Amino acid sequence: MKDNNRSRKRKSTLRQKLLLIIFGLLVGGTFSEIGLRIIDYSYPQFYQNDYYRGFALRPGIEGTYRREGTSYVRINSDGLRDREHTKTKPANTVRIALLGDSFVEAMHVPMERTFWSLLGPKLEACNAFHGKQVEIINFGVSGYGTAQELMTLRQKVWDYSPDIVILAFTIFNDVYDNFRPLNGTEQVPYFVYRNRQLVYDGAFRDSPKYLSRYSKLNRFGRWFHDHLRIVQLVHYVQFVTKLRLTDWRNRRRLAAAPQKQSASADPADLGRDNMMYIEPRDEDWKEGWRVTEGLILQIRDEVKQHGAGFFLMIVPTAIQVYPTPVVRENFMRFVGVNTMFYPNSRLKALAEREQIDFFDPAEQMQAYAAEHKVILNGFGQDIGNGHWNIAGHQAVAELLAQRLCSDQAIVRSVSRKPNYLTISKSIH
């Protein structure tokens, strides 16, 4: 009998302690949630599944972007990191559509400081645009390769009837993003060559991770993330922890690697990102380049079919535009190359062969950084790495405006605007 009483007392005590713990968590969580809302903390999920592109920006979502740099981001009603645009092009307006990845999406800086926001007024001031209004529409999405940009062109861009399409090609990762064996993920679409034709591969739709995002549990979790700032904070802490662990591993790998590499260095020592600076040696990299060049030409062809002008722009890597020569020289010594511009030269040769309007601002940005004594990539402690900061966007806006204002092919595409309107109507 006494044992039963003691057992009941223990259970009662445990229940009381458990209730106190739950009550404390609820009170603490409530006050934390209130505090986070008072300081306007947010860390939203900006992306959602997309049937054609794997993922895309969520229309109407807004909040503070904190992954690199800090800015308040609003995604418009059509899922663009941009202001609202009408589908019908206003009179006396030249529309420019920008395709690209995170450098174009540019969540790292306020929208009004992005290169595409700064570019419009600069173009309106030059003779090439004949006093017309210039409207730039940003279709960039972080993580996109050229395959997803081609699908964006097909699924989104033509609704806005652009006169010019600019493809911003990121040297850092676009080639391996375009080829499954190099990219190593099943969650995005690819294009593959079959019978010498590039064919869309939507196998990602059957991948477990893609399908899991449609589950009730995932939707339930997304609701909590959207509505509770404390959940957003937990997710941010998880992201930072994972990022720092990856950085620590990379530093260890670099510290363990020989200080001087050769052109025959093991790719595992160089890392996937640095293989871009070397002429392809194995079949995967050769095929990755072949698919990439095919995708660029496919975009060019479809833009021409719609009567618009096509312009290929290089997005240089951070080391290519770093202002200090000794830093660049040390990097080339590590990779085992005499120049870090192999991918730039290869794309320039493609553009010359195919008569594509081409702009590579790498050397000009390098000179700009040295002249103005600024570093154009990175933020805070990670200055010199990563995406364009405010100075980087300013430099790109100035250099791109100079190039477009002096480009005779662009001038011709603008002057063909009445023809383009006729063509676009017949296609749609």
Describe the structure.
The chain is an alpha/beta fold. The protein contains 17 helices and eleven strands. A five-stranded parallel sheet has the order 6-5-7-10-11, with helices on both faces. Strands 1-2 form a two-stranded antiparallel ribbon. A hairpin with a 2-residue loop joins β8 and β9 (197-201). It is globular and about 95 Å long. The N and C termini lie far apart (86 Å). The relative contact order is 0.12.
Given helix and strand content, the structural type is: alpha/beta
Taken as a percent bin, the fraction of beta residues is: 5-15%
State the major sheet: 5 strands, parallel
E-strand count: 11
Number of helices: 17
- Order of the strands making up the biggest sheet: 6-5-7-10-11
Helix content range: 40-55%
Radius of gyration, whole Å: 25 Å
User: Mean pLDDT across all residues, rounded?
Assistant: 85
Tell me the quaternary state: single chain
**Secondary-structure element series:** HEEEEEHHEHEHHEEHHHHHEHHEHHHH
Distance between the termini: 86 Å
Overall shape: globular
In short:
This protein has 17 helices and 11 strands. With 428 residues, the chain is an alpha/beta fold.
List keywords for this structure.
428 residues; alpha/beta; five-stranded parallel β-sheet; two-stranded antiparallel sheet; 49% helix
Topology record:
Blueprint: H1 2-38, E1 47-50, E2 54-57, E3 62-65, E4 71-74, E5 93-99, H2 102-105, H3 115-124, E6 133-138, H4 146-155, E7 164-170, H5 174-177, H6 180-183, E8 190-194, E9 197-201, H7 208-212, H8 216-227, H9 229-256, H10 267-270, H11 283-305, E10 309-315, H12 325-335, H13 342-354, E11 357-359, H14 362-372, H15 390-405, H16 408-415, H17 417-427
Parallel strand pairs: 5-6, 5-7, 7-10, 10-11
Antiparallel strand pairs: 1-2, 3-4, 8-9
Helix pairs in contact: 3-15, 4-11, 8-9, 14-15
